[in-house]
Specification:
Layout: H1 34-54, E1 58-63, E2 74-77, E3 80-90, E4 97-103, E5 116-119, E6 123-124, E7 129-130, E8 141-144, E9 155-157, E10 173-179, E11 190-193, E12 196-206, E13 213-219, E14 232-236, E15 239-244, E16 248-253, H2 256-260, E17 263-267, E18 281-285, H3 290-294
Parallel strand pairs: 1-9, 2-8, 10-18, 11-17, 14-18
Antiparallel strand pairs: 1-4, 2-3, 3-4, 5-8, 6-7, 10-13, 11-12, 12-13, 14-17, 15-16
Amino acid sequence: MTDQPTTQPTPPPDTGDAIPLAVVRPRRFSVTWLIPIGALLLVAGLLFAHLARERGPTITIRFADAGGIEPGSEIVHRGLSVGVVRDVRLTDDMTGVLATAELAPHAAAIAGEGSAFWIVRPEISLERIAGLETLLGPQYIAVRPAPPGAPRASRFEGLDAPPAIAPPADGSIRVTLRAPRLGGLAPGSPVLYRDIPVGAVRSADLAPDATGIIITADIQPRFAPLVRDNSRFWRAGGVGVDFGLFSGLTVRADSLSSVIHAAIAFATPKRPGAPPTDATVFDLADTPDNDWLEWAPQIKLTPEPALSPNPTIAP
């Protein structure tokens, strides 16, 4: 049997045109891209720094209840907005609320140990009328800043009511009075000298032996020399009526301010004594003796600090 030859495929004719092969080469990073990337990073850094400067510290204040405070409520000091509430939520134990607020950069010093925060609410009483603007307007948080140089803090306990009175200024003196009862006096009640307010009541509490009331009052620096260890203090306010068989009916009233508000008045004899010490305690009388009302000693008051003149600007 004869073997048949194997047929081989015929290759295509060589026309001289070879098929090109695609070669993939990695693209090199161009240095020119560093310019826009660097510019973008620079702009982002400047924007972040600007936002950081525009934002003050964040603080958290705990209150017993929100009292109308909500996100957007302001923190106000001396009539100026110094912060804004960002969030209000319940505490984890459901016993209070936490208000998270952001302070303005210029008011960052308010976030110091000793700062006092309270919610301003309408208050109408015999002693004071305050917060009436919140009847129609939004509620806000008031603050009494900490003393200068106080350490920074971020968490605070809010007060249920405004502080009784600001701490005494430099040069003020504090006097201690003892009385059998408080009467209508309260923190903030004025202290008068010849019907001129020269100080204010700071606090009142039971005596350590519970036999009377201990009242502390601050006298302004200018009027501090008026108080001597032989000064006499009495309750001022209200209208007194005296009737005598021969003198007839006598009506005695203090100034209009002391009629509306309970106050303390004092007088110093014509021969003033020594300045009081921290251990000096004055008795608070219910009514003054007639002699006290006639005392008129010549006492030089502490001069008020003079305002510095405007500096001259050279051309």
